[in-house]
Each structure stands twice: as structure tokens, then as C-alpha cells.
Amino acid sequence: MSFTEERAAERGNPMDKWGKMAADCNMIDPALYAKYEVKRGLRDISGRGVLAGLTRIGEVHAYILNEGEMVPVPGRLIYRGYFLSDLTRGFLAEDRMGFEETCYLLLFGELPDARALDEFNGELRRFRHLPNKFVRNAILALPNRDIMNVMARGVLALYGYDEQPDDTSIANVLRQSIGLIARLPIMAVYAYMSYAHTLEGRSMFIHRPLPTLSTAENILRMLRPDRSFTRLEAVLLDLALVLHAEHGGGNNSSFVTHVVTSSGTDTYSAIAAALGSLKGPRHGGANVKVVEMFDELKRCVRDWADEDEIAAYLAKLLNREAFDRKGLIYGMGHAVYSISDPRSKILKSHAEELAKQKGVEEEYRLYERVERLAPEVIGKARKIYKGVSANVDFYSGFVYHMLGIPRALFTPLFAMSRIVGWSAHRIEELANEGKIIRPAYKSIAARRRYVSMAGR
After folding, report:
1. Beta-ladder partners of 168
2. Of 147, 272, 366, 433, which residue has the fewest beta carbons closer than 10 angstroms?
3. Other CB atoms within 10 A of residue 129 CB
4. pLDDT for the residue 303
5. Which residues, in sequence order, are CB contacts of 392 under 8 Å at separation 6+?
6. Beta bridge partners of 65
């Protein structure tokens, strides 16, 4: 250690001191938000969002107004006017994969007939590859523990392979969007292979997607050493992709897409920004936290059928005495839904069949018990202003686990799906030629006189 390094060690890490200074000078008295009627998170105390725009793409319906009062109702998610429950029931009844026709619906506003869907699938197949040397140079040569970061970097790298990267005409943005919908799953799976090989010392294999397979089938094919999967596995993954494809313009990452698009930037930059938003544990990363929480619950609760023991553990979670000490029961509660999250209900109804196939029915029953007990435990421990129910993250992580999907790919799977909604919202923002989104912030800093160096 050099003399300079020894002196630095004696003084301590300056970032610790500077970090405290930076935090202290930015603290705002919470009472001021009420004083100036600022809706933190753009939501009021009842969970109702501040109206920031209009959309024809998706609708999240969770309450009705009765004589001016908000009355919670079972949650509904609507894609282009169609109830999500009707869409999923339709393609499942006809034994079809639904993600690709959901993409078509969200992008073009109508359900495709057989000919239109075949033409759209043809465009997806045309883009279902990565440019020459891209895999080696942009993915394998630069492994990263966080696959979302690799995907964002890869999306930005595709800008350099596009002959019209800055053209924001609707036709060109559609071409770019379809290309990203087709390529994001490939980038994610290959990024995971690089991570597993380089940082975990496991064997690496690179399987090419097959043109004849759906998005969900290709994801499973690329992930598995023997390229095999069951029909039920593909159907469940396809269903999860459909459920995550869109959630209204107000979710964080879709709102980011609107904000960044309103500046006039290119498609690759807008989608990279959305990926950065979804990466956050308060948004797309929550399903990993649910599975990790259940890992500890299964270790701590000796009898999975003992509801008193389960409830006691859940109380410890709320009291910051278990798991990550954050005081949260992950997978429970939503910013909008109170009585029920329709995505969770749909996924749960099909997860049981997969649990039977995989021989993990006991674990599925444990999830059911926690789903039923958690609202009661939360209601006793906290003052809540609306109901609490399981959100989509509660069962999606369990489904991914049953499918053998690595946890490092849980949030990337969300992104592979939500890229559709982001693309639709980007096109909506461009089509309406809106103003740059620039909300107001009120400064509460006191005025001060400049002090010279000698006087400080």
C-alpha cells in the first residue's frame, strides 16, 4: 500500500461522508407534500392516479364511482377494448398460442384473422435472428450478472445496425418495434448463457430459434440443453407473456416510454430507458422477491398446512423480523387493484395443472394458503385504505420456477412481453404529436448569499 493509500485509509472512504452530505441536502419534510398538494408517486392516498394522459391501448379497471365515492370492484385488465379474460379464454379454447395475436392487437388495434396473423408471424420470423457477430461482440464478450443490463446494452447496440435509426415515422418505428419484439428473447437467453458460463462456470450452449415455433416455444427451446418441452409448459409460458404484455399507460415503464418518446429520441433509446425502469425491484423485479421470500418461508415454517404457523411468519415479515427486513409481504397488494388482480387469477387457474404435472402440489397449496392469510395479517397489523390481494408477481415466479427458468431471467421474461406494450405506447405518443412531457417541481430551497472561499 502506498503512502497516499495509507493516508486515504486513515481518513476513511470519502464517499461515505459525501454520501451523507448528499442525502442530507436533499431531504424534504414529508409534511410539505401535503401542504403543497403534491401527489407523491403521482397517486393520492386512495391509490387513484393523477391523470397524465389519454390512451386507447390498455385500461386497468379496479373501482367504480358511486355518488363521488370510489368503490372497489374485482380488477379487470382490458387490451384495446377486449377484456383480458375473454382474450385468454378464446385462444386457450382453440388450443392456440396467444402471444403473437396479442402483439398484433396491441400494435394495430384489432384482432387478426388467420391471414393477417400469418403475415405478422412472417415478419417476426424475418427478424428472429441477431446481426452477424452481434452475439459474440455484444453479448458473449461482455458477460454481466444482470441480464436486464445486457438487454439494454444490446438494444442500444442494435441502433448501429439500423440504416434508419433516427427515423420516427410510424412505419419505421413499427419495423423497429417488430424487430425488437422478435430479438429481445434471443438476447436475453444468450446473455444468460454467457453469464452462467463465465461467472458460474457452467456449460454454455447456443441454440438458434426455429422459425416454425412461437415466441414461448422458442424461449424454452433455447434455454434447455435438449431443446425439449411439453405442450403444457409452452402454453403456460405463452399465457404469462400475454398477461404481462400491457398494463395501461400509467405503469412506470410505459410512462417512461411516453416521457422519453416525447423528447423526439430514437426507438432504441426509448426502449433502453423502459428496460431500466422495469429492472427496478418495485416494478419488474418483484417476482424474484416473491420466490426468495417463499424460500425462507419454507425453511422457517415446519408444517406447511399449519395456518397459525404461516400467519405468525407473515406477521414477522410485516414487523421487519424476517426475510429482508423491509416489512413487506411480496406479491401482495397493488397500486391500483384492491379486490383482485385479474392477471393473478388467470395465471393461478392454470398453474395448478402444471404443479400436478411437476409433482409440487404441496407447494402450490402453500401459495394458496399464503394468498388467503396475508390480507388478514396485513389488515390486523396496518391501517390500509383499500383492499389487499395477490398481484401477478405472486404466482408468476412460481410458474417460472416450475418451468425451470433461472431466476436471473424472471425480470427479463417480463421485458420480453412488455416490449409489446412499450412499442404500442411509443407509437401512440408519436401518432398524436404531443408536447414534450415536462411536469412541474416546486423548489423549497431557501435563498442564500454567495460566500467567498476565504469566508466559508
Report:
1. none
2. 433
3. 15
4. 97
5. 243, 244, 341, 343, 344, 347
6. 70
Q: Residue 369's pLDDT is what?
A: 97
Phi, psi of 60 (to 5 degrees): -105, 115
3-state secondary structure of 95: coil
Residues of the chain with pLDDT under 70: 1-11, 45-47, 65-68, 385-386
Residue 429, CB-side half-sphere exposure with 13 Å CA sphere: 29
Query: If we measure between CA atoms, which residue out of 433, 424, 425 comes closest to residue 178?
Result: 424
Contact 341, 390 (CB under 8 A): yes
The Cα 151–Cα 142 span in angstroms is 11
pLDDT of residue 13: 81
Q: Is 427 in contact with 59 (CB distance < 8 Å)?
A: no
Q: What is the DSSP letter of 448?
A: -
Task: Using alpha carbons, select from 426, 438, 418, 447 the residue that is nearest to residue 103.
Answer: 418
Max Cα-Cα span within the chain: 80
Could you give the CA distance from residue 77 to residue 424 in angstroms, rounded to a whole number? 16
Question: Grid coordinates standing for 167?
Answer: 427515423
CA 415/CA 136 separation, integer angstroms:
22
Where do runs of H (alpha helix) occur along 201-285? 215-223, 231-244, 252-261, 267-278
What is the per-residue pLDDT for 3?
46
Distance, first Cα to last Cα, the chain:
34
Give me 433's grid cell.
Answer: 404529436
The per-residue pLDDT for 38 is 85
Cell numbers given for 446: 431557501
pLDDT recorded at residue 71: 77
CA dihedral for 289, 290, 295, 300, sign (positive or negative): positive
pLDDT of residue 47: 64
Give the CA dihedral 103, 85, 42, 107, nearest 10 degrees: 20
Contact 102, 242 (CB under 8 A): yes
- The DSSP element (H or E) to which 6 belongs, if any, is helix 3-11
Region label for 142, one of left (φ > 0), alpha (ψ between -120 and 50) or beta (otherwise):
beta
* pLDDT confidence of residue 302: 96
Distance CA 403, CA 422 (A): 26
State how far the Cα of 312 lies from the Cα of 175, in Å rounded to an integer.
Answer: 53
pLDDT at residue 67, rounded to an integer: 64
Q: Which residues are catalytic?
A: 334, 393
- Give whole-number Cα distances, 107 to 80, 102, 120, in Å: 9, 9, 11
d(CA 262, CA 257): 8
Looking at 248-285, list the stretches that DSSP marks H as alpha helix, in order from N- to C-terminal side: 252-261, 267-278
